[in-house]
Structures are given as structure tokens and as C-alpha cells.
Design a protein that fits this description.
Blueprint: H1 2-16, H2 30-38, E1 49-50, E2 53-56, H3 69-75, E3 79-80, E4 84-87, H4 94-126
Helix pairs in contact: 1-4
């Protein structure tokens, strides 16, 4: 169920900015995510736009999608967007929740994607031929 929510959450803003390529997802539990990210070097994910998503039982955990994760993503070079903290009780209303969230996040996704493309273009110009 969480993976299906993640796919829909990633595809919603992607569609709104005209991104037609496949959306890549990493679906990890918090402990596994930390173990993976701890092994990465600084800026290892430079040029990646991240859409943090947390599906939880209790809304009291909502800050977990932002507070511990955002600084780590920035250190890794990710362009983070506002996270989506979704209470399991809201899953039946997923399209409505995603619509509100994507309205807030789409401009940042679009800006982040443009910055990523500009970074790739600049890197190609600097690369030896």
C-alpha cells in the first residue's frame, strides 16, 4: 500500500510539470534509509529532486518527514521539496490530499528540475573533450 501511495505521490507533481519520463522511487523503512544514506558521500545525490513521503499511524509523527530528513538530503546535494506526511486514515482521500500537496510542491519540483538540468548542462560544458 505504501509503495502505491509513493508512486501516486511522485507522479502527481511530475504530470503537472510535464515530466513524462519514468519516476524513480526509493521505498525504504526509516532504519534502512538511514543505513543507505550513511554510506553515501557528500553531494552523492547532487541534481536529484526529492519528494519525501511518510505514511504514519499518528499525526504526531508528521515532523519526521521534514526535521531529520531535510538537512541530510541537502548535505547529499538533493533539491528537497516539502515532504508529505500522510496519516493512514487519510488514504481513502488520497487524490484530494495529493491535489492540495502537489499545488504547494509543483513550483519547487519544476524549479528543482530546471536547476538540475542547468547543472548537467554546465557540467557538460566544463568536461574535457
Amino acid at each position: 500500500m505504501t509503495l502505491a501511495v509513493a508512486v501516486e505521490a511522485a507522479e502527481t507533481p511530475a504530470e503537472h510539470i510535464g515530466h513524462d519520463a519514468a519516476v524513480e522511487l526509493v521505498d525504504l523503512s526509516a532504519g534502512l534509509l538511514k543505513a543507505v544514506l550513511d554510506r553515501l558521500i557528500s553531494r552523492a545525490l547532487a541534481g536529484t529532486v526529492a519528494l519525501p513521503l511518510l505514511v504514519m499511524d499518528d499525526a504526531r509523527h508528521a515532523l519526521a518527514v521534514e526535521v531529520p530528513l531535510r538537512p541530510l538530503l541537502v548535505e547529499l546535494g538533493v533539491v528537497p521539496t516539502p515532504g508529505l506526511a500522510l496519516v493512514e486514515a487519510d488514504l481513502p482521500r488520497l487524490p484530494e490530499v495529493l491535489e492540495r500537496w502537489q499545488t504547494a510542491v509543483t513550483p519547487q519540483v519544476k524549479g528543482g528540475a530546471q536547476r538540475c538540468r542547468q547543472g548537467v548542462t554546465a557540467a557538460r560544458r566544463r568536461a574535457p573533450r
